[in-house]
Amino acid sequence: MDSQEKKPLEKVCFICAKGSLEDVYATLVMANGAVMEGIETKVFFTFFGLDGITKKTMNHLHTATTGNPAMRMPGGLPFPTMLGGIPGVEAAVSSMMRKQMEDLDMPPVDEFLEMITAGGGELFACKLAIDMFKLKKEDLSDEVSAILTIGEFYEMCDGDRTQIIFT
Amino acid sequence: MAEKTIAGKQINVTDDGYLEDMSQWNEDVAKEIANEIGIELTDKHFEVLKYLREKSAAGEALSIRSVGKSGVVDIKGLYKLFPKGPLKFSSKIAGIPKPTSCV
Fold first, then answer.
1. Backbone dihedral region of B92: left (phi > 0), alpha (psi from -120 to 50 degrees) or beta?
2. Signal sequence span per UniProt (chain A) (predicted)?
3. Which pLDDT value is given to residue A1?
4. Which of A91, A103, A121, A131 could form an S-S bond across to A41 if both were Cys, CB 3.0 to 4.6 Å?
5. Least CB-CB distance to B87: which of A36, A114, A120?
6. B65/A118 Cβ within 8 A
């Protein structure tokens, strides 16, 4: 037996503030993983992260092809920044990334949100950002349970085995 | 690796309690592992376990999404059958290796 008592995580709260494909998916993979481990999970979407729960945008997220030094061509060669700026390139690269993720059984965003709530995870939108982008509750995925202020979100993040993760 | 007596049978299990050899599995073994986790198995559970064992024997990597699309059970149903561990607990009870998928 271990001499030290293990103290597993009981709750994780994610804050998703960025709206690129990889930022939103990083949040969703970690949140869904937490739900699957039986950890209470809450996700707060704010600023451009709202794209990940907005019906119109959530399944068409892009990855940046300029200003992204880690971007590579399919063969592994560096991706020229000039090329990334040509109209249509970002959309093509993003759709290729989505296809590669689909091959690994990563679902489209709308289905991913459903998977998280099916396991009891909860999704929230930031009130301030909603007002700023002039969005309404109807514009958001039906899986989103409420629009909250950051104070209300922090109230949900109580407990001494809780972690807040900003992605 | 360790040996454990489950339902009166000597069974090789990993440190996490997953069966080393899925052919050592039977329904009583499943019931006892499920009991330890705190799950009472029903016919619906066995339907899912059977599906998992077939897929695992065929060498397919299981994900919660693929199980949800199997037609045997949807994701919500899977969470209801195996609370707090839809893929982990079901794999352990089905006598198949610990899942390696992140989704």
1. alpha
2. none
3. 52
4. A121
5. A36
6. no
Q: Does this complex have an ipTM over 0.85?
A: yes
| Cβ proximity of A115 and B64 under 8 Å | yes
Distance separating alpha carbons of residues A42 and A153, to the nearest angstrom: 9
Burial class (CB within 10 angstroms; exposed 0-12, middle 13-18, buried 19+) of B69? middle
CA distances from A117 to A41, A133, B48, B60, B84 (A): 9, 25, 21, 26, 13
Q: Which of the listed CATH numbers 3.40.50.2300, 3.90.79.10, 3.80.30.30, 3.40.1260.10 matches domain A11-62+109-166?
A: 3.40.1260.10
- For residue B24, count other CB atoms closer than 10 A to its CB: 15
Is residue B1 pLDDT above 70, yes or no?
A: no
Which of B15, B82, B84, B101 would you mutate first to test chain A, the one with the most A CBs within 10 A? B84
For an interface test with B, the pick among A102, A105, A112 (most B C-beta atoms closer than 10 Å) comes out as: A105
- Report residues of chain A scoring pLDDT below 50: none
Q: Do B75 and A38 touch (CB under 8 A)?
A: no
